[in-house]
Design goal:
By secondary structure, the protein is α/β, with parallel strands linked by helices. It is about 45% helix and about 15% strand.
Length: about 270
């Protein structure tokens, strides 16, 4: 199996320190394009698509592997192994925050730090925990997805993206949803929104940064603060950016937050 082909791995940049960018649900590596140029001079940048997303090899998709976030974490670790990457700073958007943390638990020595963009360890409200969604509402969203996929994408994209003054961003996200295999995307959605990784947070040992946006309907401030407070060694930066995709809607602020944090670990 050619892991690099499977995950459409691309390497850019001129530095030695590795920045590995992991995209969120329904996205692909191209959505980091507003951020990565700022780091090309000083970092080795690794970009990839999860199997079933972007230009990955869809023939490699196996439901038994990707029926939990651990399967996606295996993608991350296999790319690291194939490229012999060490001391990696993983930048994970949304669900990739948890995927990255799970990968770090399995092979801590591969990673130097995690930058978690709009993370959530559990999306469902339960037993006093506020994840942002009632379970029945998520089941309803999955039903809409199954019965009217285009309508689901049309509804969800602007909710995720916000920033209505830039409709082209929500349109790009909607088109990304619609370009992917409906069944694979549906499975990834269930794995994403019904996962509960709160317990695993206490097992993470690598330093982490939480980037928390305003008016994020997918991962609210309470959710980001829970992740920050539960992780052993983390910081949280509250951004002025709104929505769930600051690397697209507010790339300059995202870059500045990343640079600020990277400077602290570079000097440590």
């Amino acid at each position: 199996m050619d892991v690099l082909k499977r995950n459409n791995v691309n390497i850019i940049g001129h530095g030695k320190q590795v920045l590995m960018f992991a995209h969120g649900f329904g996205c692909d590596q191209s959505m980091w394009r507003f951020v990565t140029p700022a780091f090309e001079k000083d970092y080795k940048i690794v970009l990839f698509d999860y199997v079933g997303c972007g230009k990955s090899d869809i023939s490699q998709y196996r439901e038994d592997r990707y029926n939990s976030l651990y399967g996606y974490a295996m993608d991350v670790l296999e790319i690291c192994h194939e490229l012999d990457l060490e001391d990696v700073v993983l930048v994970g958007h949304s669900v990739s925050s948890m995927i990255g943390l799970l990968a770090s638990i399995q092979d801590q020595d591969r990673f130097r730090a995690m930058i978690l963009v709009c993370p959530s360890a559990c999306y469902i409200n339960k037993n006093g925990y506020i994840g942002g969604f009632e379970e029945k509402d998520l089941h309803g969203l999955m039903e809409v997805m199954e019965n009217n996929y285009v309508g689901w994408a049309n509804f969800l994209a602007p909710v995720v993206m916000k920033n209505q003054e830039r409709p082209e961003l929500a349109q790009e996200l909607e088109e990304s949803f619609c370009s992917m295999d409906k069944e694979i995307t549906g499975n990834f959605a269930k794995v994403t929104f019904f996962s509960d990784n709160r317990r695993e947070l206490s097992e993470v040992k690598v330093p982490s940064l939480v980037l928390q946006c305003k008016e994020d309907d997918i991962a609210s401030e309470k959710v980001g603060e829970y992740v920050h407070n539960t992780l052993e060694n983390s910081e949280i930066y509250y951004m002025n950016a709104t929505g769930h995709c600051p690397h697209m809607s507010h790339p300059q602020e995202t870059i500045e937050c990343m640079q600020k944090y990277l400077a602290t670990i570079d000097n440590s």
